[in-house]
Amino acid sequence: MSIMKQSSKALDRPLAEWFTAISLGQIKLPRFQRFEAWDRNRITSFLNTVVHNLPIGVTLVLEVGDEEKFVSRHIVTAEKDGNPKVSQHLLDGQQRLTAFWRSIHNNYEWETYFVHIPEFDVEGEKEEGEEISIRHCARYMKAGQRYPLWADEPRYCLYRGLIPVNLLRPADIQAEIDAWVSAATATYNPDDNDPEFASKIRKFMAIQEKVKGQIVSLRERIAHFNLPYLSLPVTTEKEVALQVFINMNTNSKPLSRYDIIVAEVESATGNSLHDLQEKLTADYPKVQNYYELPFQILATSALLQDKLPNERGMIDMCKTKMVDNWDTMSKCLGRMADFLDAQGVYDRQRLPTNAVLAVIAASYSLIPEHGDFRGKAEKLLQRYLWSAFFTDRYENSAASRAYNDFRNLRELLQNPAFEDSDLVKVPALNRSEHPLVTVEELMSADWPKRETIRGRGILSVANYLGAIDFADGQKANFQSLQNREYHHLFPDALLKEAEINSFLALNCALVTWKTNRTIGRKDPLDYLQDRTDWTDEQTVEQRLKTHLIPVACLKNGKYDSLEGNDRLAKIREDFQVFLSTRAQLVSLAVSRLANGESISPESLSQTSYLPPTVPDQPVMLFTVPAV
Questions:
Q1: pLDDT tens-digit profile of 65-115?
Q2: Considering its fold, how many domains does the chain have in total?
Q3: Which residues form the domain of 1?
Q4: What's phi and psi for 489, nearest 5 deg?
Q5: Which ranges of 151-230 would DSSP assign to H, the alpha helix?
Q6: Which helix (H) or strand (E) holds 355?
């Protein structure tokens, strides 16, 4: 009788061992694996799982013998000189290990990762029982420097309760840790002549020891965190390994929090949450356009019970009260959808951050359907909405920040006589804590089809202004946007020629295009004309205004007569002027929207602006103030 052999073996491996194997080049990726796909939110979530020592799914490796079965590559930024001996191919778990490797070195270009220690946070909002968590800081370049500057200054990091994740990597870096702690705590070190020197030096040393102690504890937690793996033996056929890889990446659907709460509600009340949800959808169909309806239901219900709009709050809230509040919650979600529609935010694909949904919905429980106060209250919500889109308020800890913003909005809404001077009570509206985005940050904002707050925010400004389609003349709304595409204003091929990243939010417009996809490296205006059913130029220019697109900057782009370096230099200069000009238009629009004002393309034409790179002639379609 034959005996079946075990197909694979589950093994434990702490992150410290994964780190060593990656650093030595012993683990590589089959070339058929996709490249990095996780955004900063997924990376933050993964790192939070690690620092809280929560369980995580297994990875999958294929043992490598004398010869690799697949052409392979190193994990990004873990490239090694020479030809190290490869012992394993990583079939599943690339995103987790890439996120771990890159964050633990903090070598991402556009973000830096920190551990937030609440007890060290001098400036932050304190929450009872707040836990250690991972936070990220978005980075951008300005005048050759990487901003914000504080993210590279230890003392300012510690003031915010932040320790850079790279200090936690499982390597011999004690000197690096000591240097950072010394710089971070230097302000507590008293002068030798200070009359209170003895007490202050003791305090200084105690602070240093506490910071070092936290770093040591976190380093131990990360080093010993278990990331288990399944091991396919060396004898596994190449075709079998490929099939296992496909299955591991397509067959997983874990039980959701909503699935669990459905069972809890039915157990506690005898009501079917699915039946209630169907009624909500029938009564307020627009709500489902903005995000997964279960999330909106649970997050809004949690806020209405004064709970955090996250998994913890959803678990803690009373399920019986949730059902009792159902009609109120449903109506609030319906009014939220109408409000977002009026603000030019039409669907999930164009929503900059879902953190605002429950806050706005729950706020409507305090806003009458008619009367003068409704207008005042909705002006407050407008200020909150656009501030959420164009400050750093929701870059990290979105649920806890949404909770704090809601509690302060609630306080204002419960007092109909609130004044503008009271707005600073709402953290998202406090400009000293959360200033509006700068022109430079707008210029570096990522392509809005990706899930980026700033990129989608820029698109939302255009949609607020109507974003009239270049070709068919339709204004932006939910239906018309379903037929539009994200497209470049300066064509991708042209910018690639000049080695420029074309996938920037300010280089994007959401419009309907013809089916011809073979247009090459044309001048911007010619490119647009070829891609759309162009009407007369004056009409199209008026439509471009509604996207805050400075047409005159596009008209400058004439490159057919130029060659070599002259051509490349003009492309780069014109694109920079275009970005700067459009960024200032968007910045002006944002400042007014975040102040609760209504805007139109014409209302943004009050003062003149002359780009410094074109000193002899205005290049604006319409004028903006210098920033």
A1: 888 888 788 999 998 777 778 999 998 899 999 999 999 999 999 999 999
A2: 3
A3: 1-252
A4: -90, -55
A5: 154-159, 174-184, 197-224
A6: helix 355-363
